[in-house]
Design goal:
Blueprint lengths: L5 H25 L10 H11 L28 E5 L2 E6 L4 E9 L38 E4 L10 H6 L6 E4 L1 H20 L2 E10 L3 E3 L2 E3 L1 E2 L4 E2 L3 E10 L4 H6 L4 E8 L12 E2 L1 H8 L9 H7 L8
Antiparallel strand pairs: 1-2, 2-3, 3-6, 4-5, 6-11, 7-8, 9-10, 11-12, 12-13
Amino acid sequence: MMKSHTPYIVMFLFLLAGSCKYLARINESAYDPKAPDAITTQNLDQKLVDDAPPATGENSNMYLGNPSNAQPNYILKNNFLINLPYYSLSYDADRGIANWVSWHLNQDGLVSNTSRRDNYAEYQGLPESWHMVHPKNYSGSGFDRGHHCPSADRLTSENANAATFLMINILPQAPNNNQGVWNNFEMYLRRRVAEGNEIYVIMGSYGQGGIGKQGYATRIDSGRVAVPSHIWKIAVILPEGDNDIQRIAAGEAEIIAINTPNSESVSSSWRKYLVTIRDLEKATGHNFLSELSIEIQDKLEIELSKAA
């Protein structure tokens, strides 16, 4: 007669259930919000949902358009779309930097729940055949690891701030540019948000060759990371509110565009580098504010800011 294994199966399932509960308790007790390296996947996802901008619609990272029509297709290695919770970007694998990065900033985004982490890290989401830029690849180059989306724009959580230190958000920036004119413009925009405004920001670079601490260079990291000649930013500033597209079309937004040389000799005053959006479109080949009608684009993109 065949011996029944049912009692043993029942006992095994009972022990397995108990073990799972025990492991779950260990996992829960191990999570310490003050210890970011111990964050579990479940907690990480929850934190991302809590403080990230909406994925679509108003206040989303690309609400005003996709300037280069980037797509998440690996064939487009020079215009590859990467949508992260805290910013979106077009990545150029041959240059090793982004073509542009786009994000939204409002008063909720200025809530400071953490400090600057300085945890520069390679981005693991690229195909294996593409060069993955490592933080150390900038060492000794004479250029700063300059942010597109600034660290200080994403202090709502450790995850938000850590996202700004991914190398896909970094470009070789002349130290005087990064620490001078660029920092001054970033602080100005955060001050405008603190005064009750929200801002749609697009930043990028173009050209080849910048002047860092060690002089002129066209590439670093054994030729795998391009040094741009110019670094630009567009800020569309609105009083905090709803119906943003309609308000921009109605002329209620202030638009500031700057274009700076990637050089140590750059001035610290961003007002010296004011340009029109149309100027930047000619320089980059991008189509900005594409969610607006052609008529409205033609009107807004030729206006030079009178920012005081």
